[in-house]
Protein: Basic amino acid ABC transporter substrate-binding protein
Organism: Psychrilyobacter piezotolerans
Amino acid sequence: MNKLIIGILMIVSLIGCGQKTEVENTTKKVKKLYVGTNAEYKPYEYIENEKLVGFDIEFMEELAKNLEYEIEWKNMSFDGLLPALQTKKIDMVIAGMTPTEERKKAVDFTDTYYNSAQAILVNKDTYGIESLNDLKGKTVGVQLGTIQETMANDIEGVEIKRYNSFTGAILELNNKKVDAVIVGEVVANNYLENNQKLKLAALLEDKQDGSAIAMNKGNEKLISELNEEIKKMKESGKYQELINKYFGG
């Protein structure tokens, strides 16, 4: 009788262990990242058919998938991204953001994942603007909080008009309320494809540090993991696939 009872208890114990493993597997906690972006910067990030798309979006989704994270996107104004990050409303930022020395004082960045020159756009009937120095005495439109705003701040004698989006700046340029707009090259190319009134006045030497993902300080482990995945994506060809898709190679 004792042997029978012991045998039954052993069977029940084994069944119980199997059930526990199954429950643990089915209730595995999903790792989630709240990622901030500004979807007004085509082809980096933009809205198409009510869906968030673009190079940064697919790039970040691929990184997250490889690290077994699920992303919840938070679309907001560009100048609100770092404040949202610092107040922990989001976990990271990807928005074609340049890791400037000033920004590095407040947050950390991954390795650079893309480099782009800057461009000056003007109306087709505007002449004599071929460099930043030529903007002296002019009215220049920029997006608030961007590297282009920083560049404009360094130009002596320029009047700066700041907008919540580059779309607003381009609209003002179309209406000749500003003389020029400074914007990233690939974004400028996108605007030129869809706007016959504008032209490229100048491409500026890229003295900045490209685009990187921003995170709060103290996340060295995750930043290291992201850097490793960025490297793997470039080696695998997936990165170039996205470059070709959104930037034309």
